[in-house]
Amino acid sequence: EAHSIGVLGKTGHGIEEHFGLKGAVDIHMGTLSKTIPSIGGYIAGDKDLINYLKHNSRPFIFSASLPPVAAATAIACLEVIEDEPERIANLQKNIKQFKDGLNSMGFNTMNSTTSIVPILVGEEEDTLKLCKMVNDEGIFICPILFPAIPKGTNRLRAHVLANHTSEDINRTLGIFERAGKKLGLI
């Protein structure tokens, strides 16, 4: 649950809700450093599982608890996910608009279904050029390069947010279209 909590499913409950598996998953594990803007991670499950992990997991035994501010931040974010479903709906709308726009231009978004949208470029030099061109237009985006991924699959990594406006997304798509054409990528 790194990219799906707060993103996938009608109420943003993640991959389990997205695939209709509510109650079918025994161990829920995820990060508190993506949609939930804190630090650390979590494991949730039944009482027996949690008791077992508390007493047998070396990383748990030899680690410190989350700082109170990090725990409070995570709880507040989870409350927003629960109390403001319109944010989830808006995020899903924005993801669709951005991905559909990129795909219609000829960019490959690698079948992403989350708010982390990869834009496959291929060669490292082209990836870095596209990244610079987009950044120079005021759009913050990061390249993901070998050795973090296989050679020849270099890409940019876009982050779509619920508070992006349709105009923000259209402006960004225009920048990608101009840069992609200038570089001969689309």
What would your notes on this structure say?
The strands form two sheets. Strands 3-5-4 form a three-stranded antiparallel β-sheet, with helices on one face. The chain has helices at residues 15-18, 47-56, 58-61, 68-83, 85-105, 124-136, 166-182; strands at 28-31, 41-44, 116-122, 142-144, 154-159. The chain is α+β, with helices and mostly antiparallel strands and 186 residues long. The chain folds into two domains: 15-83, no CATH class; 86-182, Aspartate Aminotransferase, domain 1 (Alpha-Beta Complex). Helix 5 (85-105) runs parallel beside helix 7.
Q: In the CATH hierarchy, what is the architecture of the largest domain at level 2?
A: Alpha-Beta Complex
Number of individual domains: 2
- DSSP summary: helix tally: 7
* Main pleated-sheet profile: 3 strands, antiparallel
Helix/sheet category: alpha+beta
Fraction in beta strands: 5-15%
Strand order in the sheet with the most strands? 3-5-4
The CATH homologous superfamily of the largest domain: Aspartate Aminotransferase, domain 1
Order of helices and strands: HEEHHHHEHEEH
Radius of gyration: 19 Å
How many extended strands? Answer: 5
